[in-house]
Design goal:
CATH superfamily of one domain: NADH Oxidase
CATH architecture of one domain: 3-Layer(aba) Sandwich
Distance between the termini: 69 Å
Strand order of the largest sheet: 1-2-4-3
Number of strands: 6
Largest sheet: 4 strands, antiparallel
Order of helices and strands: HHHEHHEHHEHEHEEHH
CATH topology of one domain: NADH Oxidase
Helix content: 40-55%
Strand content: 5-15%
Bound molecules: flavin mononucleotide
Radius of gyration: 23 Å
CATH class of one domain: Alpha Beta
């Protein structure tokens, strides 16, 4: 069409932006609708789909490209049951697919050893954090890919209730550590979207802008949270967010308080000599 055409309909800025950036794409729509799914149909997933999901995970960015994570797909009923016991969440054992993401510096240490090098400086807390973020990002890729495929997913941070036991159950060697579990499968429940704190409370520019709580915004969020029903808890309404915060900050699982001890016991050097 002639650019100078007098009768041409003008595009609104939104339409233009949609055309150029596709702000209303399927990925973002999925992310805006996502919620944790904890009940699944008792049906296996297609092998070709699973293979594709794991290929997508394998493309995840990793710190310095070192890929310091591994995944354990848990199929054995006894292993699943043992992990569910640690988590205190019986639905963990029932997820059609269960993958545990592991911080893994063991593999690269082995590779270095093959080259005749023994790693003396590399297995620090910093490297642990790198491996931990690699593992978490890989888990997030998996859930995003799962959800984009029309399936549902749940994270299991609860496996860290007893890191020592999980290390034993999964036979984790030194320089590895459990990070997060992901259960997934075909959706068999319709949970509500859980309310979120408004972005104004957690999106800042340049510096940490909100040292004080916006009590009005919090009151509105508290009230909104009280309208949310948690399907896990006999379908009852949940507490206000403020109440949840107080409860959560006052109940820390005993073994989780000793997390650094478990990490050190796996051979990570938390405080190298200067
Ligand atoms: C790191 C992490 C660990 C989590 N661990 C568990 C868990 O052990 N069990 C569980 O049922 N949900 C777990 N969740 C899911 C959260 O409870 C859930 O994302 C949160 O309540 C918000 O609900 P929504 O995802 O439905 O929006 C975890 C989420 C994250 C990010």
């Amino acid at each position: 069409m002639n650019e100078g055409g007098g009768g041409r309909k003008k595009s609104s800025p939104e339409t233009l932006m949609n055309t150029i950036f596709d702000v209303d794409n399927k990925t973002i729509r999925n992310l805006l609708q996502r919620r944790t799914i904890r009940e699944f149909k008792d049906e296996p997933l297609d092998d070709a789909l699973l293979a594709r999901l794991f290929e997508a995970v394998n493309r995840t960015a990793s710190s310095t490209g070192m890929q310091q994570y591994s995944m354990i797909r848990v199929k054995d009923e006894a292993v699943r049951k043992a992990l569910a016991d640690v988590a205190g969440q019986e639905y963990l054992a029932r997820a059609p697919e269960l993958v545990i993401f592991i911080v893994d510096l063991y593999r690269n240490n082995k590779i270095a050893a093959l080259k005749g090098e023994s790693v003396v400086a590399g297995n620090t807390m910093d490297a642990f954090f790198q491996g931990f973020s690699d593992a978490i990002l890989a888990a997030q890729t998996l859930t995003t890919a799962v959800e984009a495929s029309g399936l549902g997913a749940v994270y299991f941070g609860s496996i860290l209730n007893d890191p020592g036991r999980v290390i034993e159950i999964l036979k984790l060697p030194t320089l590895t550590f459990p990070a997060l579990g992901v259960g997934f499968g075909k959706i068999n429940q319709e949970p509500m979207l859980k309310p979120r704190m408004p972005l104004s409370e957690k999106l800042f520019t340049d510096t940490y802008e909100k040292l004080e709580i916006d009590t009005e915004a919090l009151a509105r969020y508290d009230a909104e949270m009280e309208t949310y029903y948690d399907l896990r808890d006999m379908n009852r309404r949940v507490d206000s967010f403020s109440k949840q915060v107080v409860t959560r900050l006052n109940t820390v699982a005993k073994k989780r308080q000793r997390m650094l001890d478990y990490i050190a016991a796996q051979g990570f050097v938390l405080k190298p000599e200067a």
